[in-house]
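Students often ask why inverse folding is considered easier than folding. One informal answer: many sequences map to the same fold, so there is more than one right answer. In these notes we will look at a single instance of the problem. The structure comes first.
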């Protein structure tokens, strides 16, 4: 499958596309879009339940099956779907690989996974091989091998798979994207962003148990959650679409947060207060691009701090500073060296997707509405049998920062090269389009 192909060519690309085209009893082959998109949900805990709810708000979507290793989670999702649609979805709760049975149903068009990180790649590989569009929570893969497996499987099967990076659809992120495209910042030079969010409570439960994120934090030191901040930057900087990430270097501050959190909550003698965690509290990564541009990325999820994704976008003519929600453009901003409020720009350079979907998004989707837009965009691609707006090359490039930072931190911040998942196509791929719903 070639992401450069137009829709018609994409649809007619050889036998490998047959599986994707043949899916769905009420889908019609060829260029006619399916009317109803039938989705199977794998992992319906906190995020999976929320995405299920979002799916139910989008016209023409049916949640046909749900899967979870915890029966009570699957049952709650079934109840949610039945209450909203009147139809009770099938349920798969027979262990960690029961998602395979869900993927092989013949009445599904797409499979979405919101399992813990280590299950994203296995579920997506199975979905693509079964001819179902894949939609995965972030990050898509945890190792370089997993990222390659995702890319190659999408290419070999001809089935698209999208990492559902919702932050790419934040209102300010998309406004900045349009401003970048219209040249307001001049040539882009540097971007900075971070997942800076105090989520100690999803590492250690209130009952004093080490949750799955805590298990990762105990074993790995690097940037374990890079895609929220890097996704928007990759779009602003045309990564895989004119430029590419070449190498990174990464270092971590000491690991103190989770130990201190456990001690404060459960006492200094609690096993989680005595435990050693590998994950440094603040991971800082520098990334260089082929065209010489730079990115600073942070991961800071286990310290007491306000939420702040930063989102600095800087070019030869000016800068957007997300923390302040302010902008400065030389020759445009009224005061020399003074930021001005972003709100008027948000209005003037509103992204067409937000113009089209703002009301539904704000009413029906979490995270300020971007959850609605990311799911809307995914479903649109499934319905029209087109490539997804974030493709497997994006997913792999953004996710591979996890293993590359772990390697760099372990080697005293040695530079580590990015694989070129596009195999040179980054030179000719067009930038992400700025279009509406
Ligand atoms: N994009 C966002 O804004 C956002 C927000 C929150 C979480 N997430 C992502 O969503 C995913 C889930 O996070 P969460 O907070 O909902 O975690 P969670 O622990 O609440 O839910 C995970 C669910 O997956 C189930 N599960 C585990 N292994 C499974 C398997 N093999 N097959 C089927 N089900 C399985 C668990 O029983 C649980 O119900 C993570 O990847 C996380 O990073 C994304």
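Output (designed amino acids):
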């Amino acid at each position: 499958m070639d992401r450069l192909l137009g829709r018609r060519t994409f649809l007619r690309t050889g036998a490998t596309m047959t599986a994707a085209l043949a899916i769905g009893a009420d889908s019609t082959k060829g260029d006619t879009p399916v009317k109803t998109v039938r989705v199977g949900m794998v992992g319906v805990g906190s995020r999976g339940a929320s995405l299920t709810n979002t799916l139910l708000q989008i016209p023409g979507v049916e949640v046909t099956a749900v899967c979870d290793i915890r029966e009570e989670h699957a049952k709650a999702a079934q109840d949610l779907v039945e209450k909203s649609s009147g139809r009770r979805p099938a349920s798969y709760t027979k262990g960690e690989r029961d998602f395979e049975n869900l993927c092989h149903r013949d009445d599904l068009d797409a499979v979405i996974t919101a399992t813990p990180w280590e299950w994203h790649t296995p579920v997506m590989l199975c979905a693509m091989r079964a001819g179902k569009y894949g939609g995965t929570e972030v990050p898509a893969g945890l190792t370089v091998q997993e990222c390659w497996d995702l890319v190659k499987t999408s290419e070999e099967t001809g089935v698209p798979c999208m990492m559902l990076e919702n932050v790419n659809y934040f209102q300010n992120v998309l406004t900045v994207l349009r401003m970048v495209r219209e040249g307001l910042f001049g040539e882009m030079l540097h971007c900075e962003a971070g997942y800076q969010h105090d989520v100690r409570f999803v590492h250690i439960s209130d009952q004093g148990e080490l949750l799955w994120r805590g298990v990762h934090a105990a074993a790995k030191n690097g940037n374990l959650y890079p895609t929220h901040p890097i996704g928007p930057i990759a779009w602003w900087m045309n990564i895989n679409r004119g430029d590419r990430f070449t190498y990174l270097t990464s270092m971590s501050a000491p690991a103190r947060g989770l130990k201190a959190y456990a001690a404060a909550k459960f006492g200094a003698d609690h096993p989680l207060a005595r435990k050693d965690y590998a994950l440094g509290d603040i991971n800082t990564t520098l990334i260089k691009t082929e065209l010489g541009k730079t990115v600073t990325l942070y991961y800071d999820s286990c310290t007491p701090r306000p939420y702040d994704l930063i989102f600095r976008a800087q070019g030869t003519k000016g800068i957007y500073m997300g923390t302040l929600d302010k902008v400065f453009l030389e020759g445009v901003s009224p005061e020399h060296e003074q930021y001005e409020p972003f709100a008027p720009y948000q209005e003037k350079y509103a992204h067409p997707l937000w113009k089209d979907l703002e009301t539904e998004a704000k009413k029906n989707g979490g995270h300020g509405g971007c959850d609605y837009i990311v799911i809307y965009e995914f479903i649109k691609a499934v319905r029209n049998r087109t490539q997804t707006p974030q493709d497997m090359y994006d997913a792999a490039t953004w996710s591979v920062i996890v293993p590359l930072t772990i390697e760099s931190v372990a080697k005293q911040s040695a530079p580590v090269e990015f694989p070129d998942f596009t195999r040179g196509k980054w030179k000719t791929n067009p930038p992400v389009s700025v279009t509406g719903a």
